[in-house]
Amino acid sequence: MSRRSVAPLAVLAVLAVLVTGCITGVKVGARCRTTDFGADSTFVLKCQRGRWVRVATKVQVARLLFAILEAQRSTVPNVVGQSIESAAAGFTAAGLSVGTATPVVSSTAPGTVLGTEPAAGSRANRGTKVSVTTSNGRGVKAMATGNAHSCAVIGTGEVRCWGYNVYGQLGNNSTANSATPVTVVGLTGATAVDVFDGHSCAIVAGGEVRCWGFNGYGQLGNGTTSRSSVPVPVTGIANATAIGLGVFFSCALISGGTVKCWGQNGVGQLGDGTTNQSLVPVVVSTINDAVSIGAGRGFACVIVTSGAVKCWGYGGQGQLGNGSSTGSYTPVSATGVTGATSFAGWDQGCVIVAAGAVRCWGYNSSGELGDGSTTNSLEAIGTGLTGAISVGAGEYTSCATFGDGSAKCWGLNNLGQIGNGTTTNSSTPESVTGLSGATAISPGGGHTCAVTSSGLTSGVVRCWGRNDVGELGNATLVNSSVPVSAVDM
Q: pTM, whole model, 2 decimals?
């Protein structure tokens, strides 16, 4: 496995910016009008989309950078020359602790550096896979939304993606962003798709899985760490029925109920009982009757045939739903969850259970658990919703669709990602404005997309929220707090 060294000068230059070159006295969650870094007494923060967001502690950043240097590993490709925001996203991914084993707010990533668990709060995110049935053979039949890009399977079996593309995650043999959907090169017969911030995967004919984009931890599953802007086949996967992508890792549900995962594994997110990174799929321990799968920032969950939910990986804010804030390298049962039919995760997990009730657990800084509070929960709690047919989890935002075609979202709304025409957060579900015929929904890292169905126009994608790199797919770069239609879908 080839590794690129980080030049000492590059490391020290970025270290100087992150640790000493910050705007002081800022407060997490407060509004900001800068592209710089800031700091409070403990944390380095980044102004992201108009809000100060925790990146890491100053000590954490320093330790990570020097750990990278010592190990001669380039966790962030080409540190000098890419945007400082992209560099910071990679640095914070290691999740180092501040002198103790206590997790801090950061993102997931190479646990192989120091093996500390990730936590909630950064811009590195994943998408939520959803599936719908089309009536005209042309509309969308599966969709996934990540941090700043989205992909959809259309009725012809092709995959189209739009938005952010710095790692080739749009799959069109380019690294140029696109504000309109572009066709992924060489994919036919696709049946499912899922995405994360830097990589995307699809299931094709025969249940094979193909992935593209960033591959620093082997998340493309082809035995290398080389990124690819076109799909590459995942080694040793056949008869896959569903996929779930997380932070630098990927998982596939195999026909018969077993699960295989690959990529980064510093917090046990591959579920094989180890923290060993794997460039090819490994079998998740003790799972042999899974019927669906989803992944979050540093954890993954399956629904098994009994309707119970089992999760593994990072659990610092209760992401495993088992009443504990301790992670697990092998699957554990989510407490009190029975009759589950659908799961979605990010830093929180949400499920649909009997009568279409929606229950969530985990991180809750912006009300994304939907219970009217901003208190984290180690076990599933109710949102008051019933009649849901699909559920989605995004960064600080969660959503559900209902049998009457309506949709509701809750949590962070600073960019209009709830879709109710405002930018006011809500810790209880709010109706999405002007959306009808919704069959599935997928919030991401500041934007949300839904698939709608209405007569001959079934399988139409409508999106809302952040749009600075084309996330809404409507040929503009203008945010919208209400749904707009992605073009050419």
A: 0.76
